[in-house]
């Protein structure tokens, strides 16, 4: 056990490191033990471990207990695989059939990339899905297929609309990406709130305080207590602009797809009813208007201009969107993924329930 200096400020708990392949097979066994077919379990586990590798700990394997509670309560179908229906040569509709959101979104992005390879553009609208965790894994899926992408989803009510006081909009992340050449690709993945709600759950899990500008408590006062924040509302970034971006996610993911919208999506931590999340996925071939080499060279030029830009006082280094997460990923592939004891205990409890082996922590 050691302190992890690279984690969020204020995180002082000792960390237990786990090798990524161990995290992957541990989660696969819990999933198959709960009735998830093995190929589907491999996809879900890979998405969760990808989040932990990129430092998006809020959307990693720690989500397993809450997902399994939904499976046990029968509000998420562990056995379901998505169906894909072509609508036009460049448009497909995916029905998640209330299975894992990771599966529906993966199938949608795979189809979008296949259409884009032929027609330059592919779009998948996904309905009756569930939480798909960190959007960046879908951007990465498109990058691995050589594609630019847009990745939208809606989510359960957590934010007020601008000027409102009730939770109505989701903290629904907006993500997009484009391949680079020699340099890092562009990967934007951002929630339209000051902070993702998962960061509040993580602080609560770890017994830590949160910054005062993240959320209001039930009485509308700024709070540093994660439990009080979860009783109140998250704050949108940039006032009306963050509120509008959250509405945009609902228009494209919820209204358009036929899934729940306008506050109708169920929170992934609420095991009482199906979530009915919607997603919107677009893949774009980057060499539509010039050669791929030219596109990649232009992306590299943009990267160099951005990270080489004159720095503000006190700034040591400028990063490209997604770069910090990629550096974290490179480091965690070497050192293992850090968890705290309480998280490992909760995961082992899930393993015990299905007779799977405990998580092996690096010595
Ligand atoms: N599925 C869901 O319903 C859901 C809901 C909310 C959030 N999430 C996920 O939570 C995660 C966290 O979201 P977030 O908004 O807190 O992310 P964040 O604020 O950590 O990062 C947002 C973006 O800013 C970039 N960035 C951050 N710091 C930077 C810096 N110093 N220099 C340059 N770029 C920088 C990141 O690379 C990223 O693209 C995301 O992966 C998101 O998909 C999922």
User: What small molecules are bound in this structure?
Assistant: nicotinamide-adenine-dinucleotide
- Strands, count: 13
Question: Radius of gyration, Cα only, in angstroms?
Answer: 20 Å
State the CATH topology of the largest domain: Ribosomal Protein S8, Chain: A, domain 1
CATH class of the largest domain, please?
Alpha Beta
Low-confidence stretches: 1-10
Give the H and E element order: EHHHEEHEHEEEEEHEHEHEHHEH
**Superfamily (CATH H level) name of the largest domain:** Malate/L-lactate/L-sulpholactate dehydrogenase, NADPH binding domain
Strand fraction band?
A: 15-25%
State the domain count: 3
Distance between the termini: 8 Å
Percent helix range: 25-40%
Shape field: globular
Mean pLDDT: 94
Can you offer a commentary on this structure?
There is one protein chain. The protein has 363 residues and is of the alpha+beta class. The protein has 3 domains: 1-72 and 336-363, Malate/L-lactate/L-sulpholactate dehydrogenase, four-helix barrel (Hypothetical Oxidoreductase Yiak, Chain: A, domain 1); 82-190 and 237-318, Ribosomal Protein S8, Chain: A, domain 1, CATH 3.30.1370; 194-235, 2-Layer Sandwich (Wheat Germ Agglutinin (Isolectin 2), domain 1), CATH 3.30.60.50. 39% of the residues lie in helices and 16% in strands. It is built from 11 helices and 13 strands. It has helices spanning 20-33, 38-53, 64-72, 101-119, 136-144, 197-205, 226-231, 240-255, 292-307, 323-335, 341-353, and strands at residues 16-18, 83-88, 91-95, 121-129, 148-153, 157-159, 169-170, 174-178, 186-190, 215-216, 233-234, 277-284, 337-339. A 7-stranded mixed beta sheet has the order 2-3-4-12-5-8-9, with helices on both faces. Strand 8 (174-178) and strand 9 (186-190) form a beta hairpin. The longest helix is centred in the first third of the chain and has 19 residues, at 101-119. The chain starts with 15 loop residues before the first strand and ends in a 10-residue tail after the last helix. The relative contact order is 0.17. Residues 1-10 have low confidence and may be disordered. Nicotinamide-adenine-dinucleotide binds at residues 56, 58-59, 131-136, 153, 155, 171-173, 188-191, 195-196, 198, 319, 321-322, 324-325.
């Amino acid at each position: 056990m050691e302190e992890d200096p690279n984690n969020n400020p204020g995180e002082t708990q000792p960390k237990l490191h786990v090798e990524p392949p161990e995290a992957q097979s541990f989660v696969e066994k819990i999933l198959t033990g709960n009735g998830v077919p093995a190929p589907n379990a491999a996809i879900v586990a890979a998405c969760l471990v990808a989040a932990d590798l990129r430092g998006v700990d809020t959307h990693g394997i720690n989500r397993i207990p809450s997902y399994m509670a939904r499976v046990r309560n029968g509000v998420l179908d562990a056995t379901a695989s998505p169906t894909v229906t072509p609508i036009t040569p460049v448009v497909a509709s995916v029905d998640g059939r209330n299975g894992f959101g990771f599966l529906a979104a993966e199938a949608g992005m795979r189809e979008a990339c296949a259409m884009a390879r032929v027609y330059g553009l592919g779009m998948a609208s996904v309905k009756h899905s569930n939480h798909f965790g960190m959007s960046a894994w879908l951007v990465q899926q498109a990058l691995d297929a050589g594609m630019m992408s847009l990745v939208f989803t809606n989510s359960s009510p957590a934010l007020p609309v601008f000027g409102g006081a009730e939770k109505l909009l989701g903290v629904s992340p907006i993500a997009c990406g484009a391949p680079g050449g020699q340099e890092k690709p562009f990967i934007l993945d951002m929630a339209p709130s000051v902070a993702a709600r998962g960061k509040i759950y993580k602080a609560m899990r770890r017994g830590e305080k949160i910054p005062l500008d993240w959320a209001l408590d039930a009485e509308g006062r700024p709070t540093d207590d994660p439990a009080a924040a979860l009783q109140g509302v998250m704050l949108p970034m940039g006032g009306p602009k963050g509120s509008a971006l959250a509405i945009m996610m609902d228009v494209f993911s919820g209204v358009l797809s036929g899934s729940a919208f306008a506050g109708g999506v169920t929170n992934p931590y609420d095991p009482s009813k199906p979530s009915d999340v919607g997603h919107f996925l677009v893949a774009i071939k980057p060499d539509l208007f010039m050669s791929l080499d030219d596109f990649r060279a232009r992306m590299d030029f943009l990267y160099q201009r951005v990270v080489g830009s004159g720095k503000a006082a006190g700034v040591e280094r400028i990063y490209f969107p997604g770069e910090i997460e990629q550096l974290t990923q490179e480091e965690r592939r070497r050192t293992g993924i850090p968890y705290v004891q309480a998280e490992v205990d909760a995961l082992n409890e899930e393993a015990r329930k299905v007779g799977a082996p405990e998580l092996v922590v690096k010595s």
